[in-house]
C-alpha cells in the first residue's frame, strides 16, 4: 500500500513494545530487542512505527542500532509533539519550537537526513492546530520530512490539517473492540489516506473475546491472527502496526497477513 509515493507492505511493526514498563526506559535485554527488529525485517516487514516519546528516545536509538544502514525500501514513521515528564505522563506539546527539537533529535537518533513519515502525535489544546501543522510544513519544505501524518484526530481536525499541508496517514486507536474512529477511517478511505490503527489487538482485550476465540479455533488460527486479519479485511487503507517484544509472537502476527477471512467470518465479528 501507499504512504504518499512510498510503497510498504500492509502489515507494519509498532516498535514500542520492546521497551521497559509503561514504554519508559530501555529494554531489559537490548540484544533481544535488536533480534526482534531484525527478524521483523527478515519476515518482510518494511514499515516501522516509533516516536521520540517512546523511552523517551530509546526506541529510535534501538532501531538505528539494530538496522542501520537500513535496507532498501525500508520506511520509518516516527512521531513528535508529546512530552514525558514521568513514566505515567503523555502530555501534548505542539509548540513549533518543541516540534523542531523533536525532529532534530529524531534525525540524529535514527541516523537520517530526512524522516519518511513524520506524525504529529496528538493535537495540543493549548496550541492552535495550524501552528503545529505549519511548523511541520516548514520542516518539510526544508527537506527534513518527506511525508506528514497526524494521530489521535477527529474528522474535523483531519480536514483542518489537510488545508495546511498534504497528509498521507492518520494514526488513531482502532480495533475489533474499539471502533470509535470509524468515521475517521471512512474519511481516510474516501481520501486515499493510510489509516494506522494503534492498539490493533486492544492491548490484549480483543483476544479474550469469545467470538474471536471461537472463530480462531474453527479456522486453525490464533486470536491475534484473527484480529489482525479482520483489520486488513476491514479497509484497503488499513495499515496495522502490531508490536511485540517476542520473536514468536512477531512470526504469529506477520502470518496473519496471509489469513483470509470469509464474508461469513467477517459478519460474525
List the helices and strands and how they pair.
Blueprint (H helix, E strand, L loop, with lengths): L1 E2 L2 E2 L5 E2 L15 H13 L4 E3 L8 H10 L7 E6 L1 E2 L7 E2 L3 H15 L4 E6 L8 H13 L3 E7 L3 H8 L6 E5 L8 H10 L2 E5 L11 H10 L3 H12 L12 H9 L7 H6 L1
Parallel strand pairs: 3-4, 4-5, 5-8, 8-9, 9-10, 10-11
Antiparallel strand pairs: 1-2, 6-7
Short description:
With 269 residues, the protein is of the alpha/beta class.
Tell me about this structure.
It is a single chain. By secondary structure, the chain is of the alpha/beta class. Strands 3-4-5-8-9-10-11 form a 7-stranded parallel beta sheet, with helices on one face. A two-stranded antiparallel ribbon has the order 1-2. Strand 10 (169-173), helix 6 and strand 11 form a beta-alpha-beta unit. It contains 10 helices and 11 strands. It has one domain (2-205, 237-247): NADP-dependent oxidoreductase domain (TIM Barrel, Alpha-Beta Barrel). The radius of gyration is 18 Å and the shape is globular. The longest helix has 15 residues, at 96-110.
Termini separation comes to 24 Å
Strand order of the largest sheet: 3-4-5-8-9-10-11
The chain-level mean pLDDT equals: 97
Which radius of gyration do the C-alpha atoms yield? 18 Å
Write the H/E string, N to C: EEEHEHEEEHEHEHEHEHHHH
Count the DSSP helices.
Answer: 10
- Helix- and strand-based class? alpha/beta
Overall structural domain count: 1
What overall geometry do the principal axes of the alpha carbons give? globular
Q: In total, how many beta strands?
A: 11
Outline the biggest β-sheet: 7 strands, parallel
State the helicity in percent bands: 25-40%
Uncertain segments: none
CATH evolutionary superfamily? NADP-dependent oxidoreductase domain
- What name does the CATH topology carry? TIM Barrel
What is the name of the CATH class? Answer: Alpha Beta
The assigned CATH architecture is Alpha-Beta Barrel
Percentage of β-strand residues: 15-25%
Amino acid at each position: 500500500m501507499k504512504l504518499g509515493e512510498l510503497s510498504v507492505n500492509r502489515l507494519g511493526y509498532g516498535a514500542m513494545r520492546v521497551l521497559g514498563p509503561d514504554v519508559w526506559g530501555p529494554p531489559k535485554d537490548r540484544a533481544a530487542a535488536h533480534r526482534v527488529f531484525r527478524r521483523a525485517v527478515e519476515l518482510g516487514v518494511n514499515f516501522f512505527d516509533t516516536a521520540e516519546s517512546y523511552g523517551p528516545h530509546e526506541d529510535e536509538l534501538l532501531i538505528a542500532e539494530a538496522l542501520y544502514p537500513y535496507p532498501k525500501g525500508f520506511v520509518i514513521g516516527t512521531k513528535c509533539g508529546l512530552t514525558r515528564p514521568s513514566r505515567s505522563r503523555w502530555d501534548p506539546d505542539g509548540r513549533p519550537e518543541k516540534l523542531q527539537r523533536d525532529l532534530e533529535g529524531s534525525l540524529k537518533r535514527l541516523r537520517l537526513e530526512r524522516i519518511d513519515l513524520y506524525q504529529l502525535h496528538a493535537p495540543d489544546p493549548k496550541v492552535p492546530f495550524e501552528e503545529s501543522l505549519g511548523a511541520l510544513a516548514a520542516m518539510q519544505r526544508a527537506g527534513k520530512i518527506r511525508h506528514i501524518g497526524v494521530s489521535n484526530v477527529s474528522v474535523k481536525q483531519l480536514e483542518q490539517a489537510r488545508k495546511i499541508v498534504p497528509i498521507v496517514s492518520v494514526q488513531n486507536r482502532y480495533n475489533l473492540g474499539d471502533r470509535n474512529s470509524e468515521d475517521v477511517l471512512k474519511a481516510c478511505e474516501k481520501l486515499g489516506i493510510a489509516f494506522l490503527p494503534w492498539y490493533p489487538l486492544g492491548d490484549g482485550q480483543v483476544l479474550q473475546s469469545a467470538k474471536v476465540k471461537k472463530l480462531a479455533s474453527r479456522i486453525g488460527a490464533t486470536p491475534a491472527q484473527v484480529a489482525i486479519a479482520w483489520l486488513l479485511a476491514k479497509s484497503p487503507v488499513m495499515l496495522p502496526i502490531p508490536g511485540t517484544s517476542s520473536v514468536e509472537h512477531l512470526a504469529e502476527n506477520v502470518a496473519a497477513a496471509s489469513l483470509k477471512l470469509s464474508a461469513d467470518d467477517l459478519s460474525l465479528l
